[in-house]
Amino acid sequence: MANATLLTTVSTTVSPYQSIEDCLATNKALYKFYAAVIIMICILALPLNASVLHLFIFKLKFWKSNTNNVFLFNLVLADILLLFCLPIKAYHFIQGERRSDNDTVCKAMLFMLFLNRGASIAFLTVTSIDRYFNVVHPGRKNLLRALKKSPHISILIWLLLLPLTIPTMLKNFDCCNSHGKNPEDAPEDILIKDVVDSLREVVFFTQILIPFIILVYCTVHIVNRLRKKTVGNRTKLKRAVFLVTSVMVVFSLCFLPCTIARMILLIARVQEWPLPQQDKAAVLFDGLMVLSYIDCLLDPLVYCFCSTKFKGLYCSTYFPFLVKDGEVPIESSSAVHTLPPTRNTVI
After folding, report:
1. Residue 237: closest CA among 159, 346, 130
2. Confidence class for position 9, pLDDT limits 50, 70, 90
3. Residue 19 has pLDDT above 70, yes or no
4. What is the DSSP string of 233-283?
5. Which top CATH class is 26-180+187-337?
6. What does the alpha-carbon distance between residue 78 and residue 47 come to, in Å, rounded to a whole number?
7. Looking at residues 325-344, what average pLDDT do you find?
8. What is residue 261's predicted lDDT score, i.e. its pLDDT?
């Protein structure tokens, strides 16, 4: 009886601030809906990405074909690794938690989410830059063209992304507790926390905003190139325009909304909005983060299937009844390998 009274007293003395810091879902029904969306994304995206991965390995033999296929293989690999993390995320949402209360599981989830999301963004950006040079500056030598001759560039990109995950491991990122002001903290602790929080937020925003600026630049110049093209094969240029435009649209749909929501949430924390408004901003941020996971579903559709040759290979392998009589599907990587990279496959 005394223990029950003590627990009741402790529970009633927990401040609303502490409940936000503990990452508890205040609207459990909404978070169960978020979990349902995540599960649906997994159900749709996992077999799609697995089938694409199968084609890259066993049909295209990506390591022998053009390096664009190497970039795309790494893109699909990043999406699949991200998909493996999502069921854990959905489980905690169902339990009414915004993240795991186990510190090891929480940090492991953050590491995987940010590493694979960073890889996805990086390989999308590199693919668009490569398409930009092939279309706008087809005869000019550039660093990317020299590097892409070696498949080790993909390994280098993964290694360069590892340091970017460090700030997310220093403090809890998942609940966006940046720049929170706890009255019980000492001034020196607040200063250290603010420095760490600022570093983490800089990494988060630059990882999204800088690639987005690059994508906009590449898209605008490729579109201008198409408008100036009066002779020659405009169809191939149109495919390049479709690629970079699709990349930018998907990027805007998946990553920009959660970036804006995080900015609003940070403003709410710094300006010390009322706790109910901070909680609403956090719920919005979590929902838009769930929306960003659709990237795993859209990547294969946009970056792989915009190539008519890859689409033909995919249909002939998994949906042969869709292949018209007389059409000869691509059965090996040799057909892809012999294609001039600046003339045929948009990817």
Report:
1. 346
2. very low
3. no
4. -HHHHHHHHHHHHHHHHHHHHHTHHHHHHHHHHHHHHHTT--HHHHHHHHH
5. mainly alpha
6. 14
7. 41
8. 92
